[in-house]
Write a structure and sequence with these properties.
heterodimer, A: 247 residues, alpha+beta, Ubiquitin-like (UB roll), Fumarate Reductase Iron-sulfur Protein, Chain B, domain 2, five-stranded mixed sheet, two-stranded antiparallel ribbon, 34% helix, 13% strand, B: 638 residues, FAD/NAD(P)-binding domain, Flavocytochrome C3, Chain A, domain 1, Methane Monooxygenase Hydroxylase, Chain G, domain 1, 3 domains, five-stranded parallel sheet, five-stranded antiparallel sheet, 17 helices, binds flavin-adenine dinucleotide, binds iron/sulfur cluster, binds FE2/S2 (inorganic) cluster
């Protein structure tokens, strides 16, 4: 397959305190089979070999499941193809000669750490506040003691597959974390195991979400459109219902 | 020389664990909160143990290199997790699971440990279910299971192709509960650089804060490594790309023996390499072999598109060679069979380094809907990566580095040969012998973390209740910190021409070619020299830009590659020493006339536990494997 060329415009920022700016790079010899991150690897190899600092970005599994990667690609979180994380986005989805602008997530609750790396620990703090079922190791009953219909269980699974990447926040004009929070609330609301602590959980998680500086949800649905795991807006509706039930 | 005492409890196999638990020393609740435990890793083993130890009331500190514990490599496991529930009523039992693992591991694992993990497997499923893990269910509302390679029962619990993610998020949630309760403190974005040993005991760690570059000291009464496997030594592997050997390697250099380092599992089905910048190989789960049939053309060099090759010109070589297990033979067998066909010139695709995994017959039999329901996300992933549609044409797959059965030597209590240092999950060597069966690693990691370590660590800690909190000001901490800083300075000062990734790729190629799916003496000896030369080149021609006191990903990588260079040598040494074939360790010199692994039980029925010996050659310690409950047999899947 033919090699491709790109004009990259990448956000470079030394640390949280320094101001960042865009830097342009030309990159050729990109194979259409390369992933977006492998394309950045190729650029970084060139930079490092000439003694320059590479573009920093978070990544690990490189197969769309750990939620480490994420950046705006031409203004879109995770780039142009719905349902794909940045690490899964192949360069064949671009055209030879394209200009590509790359930026870190922009949200008050996700401060930039360096280049394309942001601090998403606010997500962890929301989960710490209540994203669990309180069962101590050894205390569980036989797994088949509680029957759950396949439909309910599959539905819970569809909510549970959120990877915590933050694209929902990044795509929202209010930088709201509602889709992320609602995915966890829904998973537990759909399963009988989650019912005992349902009220305390939703109160704690929503309160922590507000404290972390995420914005309000105004139902524009940008999050659902950009979520690489296609977490549905119906989760947000369920979160709202659970929240009203809790007071 | 160290002594290897496996501390296996007396008594019949099925009573050992119960007896151990009822007689081991305990720590009373008031003392628990005065005892500090450090855990490196937040995968199924690390997060699980942190939660369980926190629940018991210990004071726990947990470290991982990712920005969040939820991203540990366990998240990527796809296919499933085993348990001996026998929900399908197909003759499964704790004993059968135990036996399958002993046989699957080609009789190179310790009976007592394997039996125990089979025993706790059922508790693991109960616990995850209670934590809200949405495992797949039958229409009647009970949990569903499926089959995996190397066994004839259906004991694998799963959550579509995201079992690891769902189990890990369950473990992460229980970890979070303890963080909220204040028993566990989480330290993400930290790289463990060294273990601190005081008076012969593990007492703390040196870590680098990956955000600031600051070198930190942390102390504890016991240290637990849950740092995962080192399959990334091949550079291209199915693991998360930052997975590394460094934590285990540093432990080795501080006195923990490293067992069977050359036992590495090469998984038969990953998407073949597509470009030279490729950074990882994506696994196509073993569960696909439930419905997919593996074949190559009968005619050498047949380059026709797969669908144009008529049935009678296809060689379903696994079904041909292994009629009983067919496409569900264990991984090592399937991988070698694929390599054999490709090396003989029957491989498919542009490079000839691939075989077909075909769903045509399954789609015909069950309909596209059913197949989509079972494997939809894997098919989609395959299509996105390769641009090809597996519903219309066979997938192309090839073996890839995947799992390390080798790891730190541990006794029955999961303690290494360094007192106070424990190792759980993939980082230890204990349960899989020379080959791991599918879906048994999540089981082991979770079982070690939630149900075994919390019971065994108390025996050690009961002797520590009078030890006050360990200060981090002693000379041992000074020394360890100084060494860590010097190494960073050295890596930064070389200022050569090549990136650590370039060196990593070259190392990976040597290991893949000579210490991968098959090995022979000549190749191993050659590899030893090549690694030695590469290591020299690394230390004289490496380029790491930037500074130490800053977020510096090139520096992180360089440190890991430096450790891989050293580990590579030990792996090769181990492979050279073992003059037999067993499980995934296939020495070409030792095979049966029809190409199967030929064990030598008389001379090699032992665990090779290597002891660090400074600049001199490592010392080999042998733990003889005694089989009291099963009969040693030739492993056959025919
Ligand atoms: C693609 C893939 C699919 C798999 N599918 C299955 C499956 O279906 N079923 C199954 O049973 N098994 C499967 N496995 C194997 C299984 O996923 C792993 O063996 C298991 O998850 C290991 O868990 P762990 O807790 O030991 O470590 P990991 O989950 O690997 O976690 C390691 C932890 O250690 C930390 N760490 C490592 N080094 C350092 C350091 N120096 N400093 C600080 N922290 C460090 C990391 O941050 C991480 O938190 C699969 C493996 C792969 C690669
Ligand atoms: S809801 Fe979707 S976009 Fe948001 S964190 Fe989860 S996976 Fe990412
Ligand atoms: S690197 Fe894990 S989701 Fe992209």
């Amino acid at each position: 397959m033919p090699d491709m060329k790109f004009k990259l415009k990448i956000w470079r920022q030394k640390n949280e305190k320094t101001k960042g700016s865009f830097v342009s790079y030309d990159l050729d010899n990109v194979s259409p089979d390369m992933s977006f991150l492998e394309m950045l690897d190729a650029l970084n190899k060139r930079l490092v070999e000439s003694g320059k600092e590479p573009v920093a970005f978070d990544h690990d599994c490189r197969e769309g499941i750990c939620g480490s990667c994420g950046m705006y690609i031409n203004g879109l979180p995770h780039g142009p193809v719905p349902g794909l994380t940045t690490c899964h986005l192949a360069m064949r989805y671009f055209n030879d000669g394209d200009s590509i602008t790359i930026e870190p997530w922009r949200a008050k609750a996700f401060p930039v750490i360096k280049d394309l790396i942001v601090d998403r620990s606010a997500f962890d703090r929301i989960q710490v506040a209540g994203g669990f079922i309180s069962v101590t190791a050894g205390a569980a009953s036989e797994a088949n003691a509680i029957l759950i219909t396949k439909t309910k269980s599959d539905e819970a699974f569809d909510s549970a597959i959120c990877i915590g990447c933050g694209a929902c926040v990044a795509s929202c004009k209010n930088a709201s974390a509602m889709l992320f929070v609602s995915a966890k609330i829904s998973q537990f609301a759909l399963l009988p195991q989650g019912h005992v602590e349902a009220k305390a959980r939703v109160r704690a998680m929503v309160q922590e979400m507000d404290r972390q500086g995420f914005g309000n949800c105004s139902n524009t649905g940008a999050c659902e459109a950009r979520c690489p795991k296609q977490i549905k807006l119906t989760n947000i509706a369920r979160l709202n219902r659970e929240y009203y039930k809790a007071y | 020389m160290i002594t290897l005492n496996a501390k296996i409890p007396e008594g019949p196999l099925e009573e050992k664990w119960t007896r151990y638990k009822s007689t081991t020393k305990l720590v009373n609740p008031a003392n628990k909160k005065k005892l500090d435990i450090i855990i490196i890793g937040t995968g199924l083993s690390g997060a699980g143990s942190a939660a369980a130890l926190g629940e018991l009331g210990y004071n726990v500190k947990v470290f991982c290199y990712q920005d969040s514990p939820r991203r540990a490599h366990s998240v990527a496991a796809q296919g499933g997790i085993n348990a001996a529930k026998n929900y399908k009523h197909d003759g499964d039992s704790v004993y059968r699971l135990f036996y399958d693992m002993i046989k699957g591991g080609d009789f190179r694992a310790r009976e007592a440990n394997v039996y125990r993990i089979a025993e706790v497997s059922n508790q693991v499923i109960d616990h995850y279910t209670a934590l809200g893990v949405p495992f797949a269910r039958e229409y009647g509302g009970t949990l569903d299971t499926r089959s995996f390679g190397g066994v004839q029962v259906s004991r694998t619990f799963y959550a579509k192709g995201q079992t690891g993610q769902q189990c890990l998020l369950g473990a992460y949630s229980s970890l979070n509960r303890q963080i909220k309760a204040g028993t566990v403190t989480m330290y993400p974005r930290r790289d463990m650089l060294d273990i601190v040993v005081i008076d012969g005991r593990a007492r703390g760690i040196i870590v680098r804060n990956l955000l600031t570059g600051e070198i930190e000291r942390h102390s504890a009464h016991a240290v637990v490594l849950a740092s995962g496997g080192y399959g990334t030594i091949y550079y291209l592997s199915t693991l998360a790309v930052n997975s590394n050997a460094s934590a285990a390697w540093k432990a080795y250099k501080k006195g923990a023996a490293f067992a069977n380092p050359s036992f590495v599992q090469i998984h038969p089905s990953s998407i073949p390499q597509l470009n030279e910048f490729q950074s990882k190989l994506t696994l196509m789960s073993e569960s696909l072999r439930n419905d997919g049939r593996i074949w190559v053309p009968k005619n050498k060099g047949d380059k026709r598109p797969a669908n144009d090759i008529p049935e009678e010109e296809r060689d379903y070589y696994l079904e041909r060679r292994y009629p009983t297990f067919g496409n569900l033979v264990p991984r090592d067998v399937a991988s070698r069979a694929a390599k054999e066909r490709c090396d003989a010139g029957y491989g498919v695709g542009e490079t000839g380094l691939a075989v077909n995994l075909d769903f045509r017959d399954a789609i015909k039999k069950h309909g596209k809907k059913v197949i989509e329901n079972r494997y939809g996300n894997l098919f989609e992933m395959y299509q996105h990566i390769t641009g090809l549609d597996p519903y219309e044409e066979p997938m192309r797959i090839y073996p890839a580095g995947h799992y390390t059965m080798g790891g730190l030597w541990v006794d029955y209590e999961l303690m290494t040969t360094l007192p106070g240092l424990f190792s759980i999950g993939e980082s230890n060597f204990s349960d899989h012998g020379a080959n791991r069966l599918g879906a048994s690693s999540l089981m082991q990691a979770a079982g070690d973390g939630y149900f075994i370590l919390p019971n065994t660590i108390s025996n050690y800690l009961s002797g520590e209740i009078r030890t006050p909190r360990i200060p981090t000001t002693g000379s041992e901490f000074d020394e360890a910190e100084k060494n860590a800083k010097e190494r960073i300075a050295k890596l930064l000062s070389i200022k050569g021409k090549n990136t650590s990734t370039t060196f990593h790729k070259r190392l990976g190629k040597i290991m893949w070619d000579y210490c991968g799916m098959t090995r022979n003496e000549e190749g191993l000896k050659k590899a030893l020299k090549m690694v030695e030369e590469l290591k020299k080149e690394f230390w004289s021609d490496l380029m790491v830009p930037g500074e130490g006191a800053d977020l510096n990903q090139e520096l992180e990588k360089a440190g890991r590659v430096a450790d891989f260079m050293e580990l590579a040598k030990l792996m090769i040494t181990d492979a050279l020493n073992r003059k037999e074939s067993c499980g995934a360790h296939f020495r070409e010199e030792y095979q049966t006339p029809d190409g199967e692994a030929m064990r030598n039980d008389r001379e090699y029925s032992y665990v090779a536990a290597w002891e660090y010996n400074g600049d001199d050659e490592p010392v080999l310690n042998k733990e003889p494997l005694k089989f009291e409950f099963v009969e040693l047999k030739e492993r056959s899947y025919k």
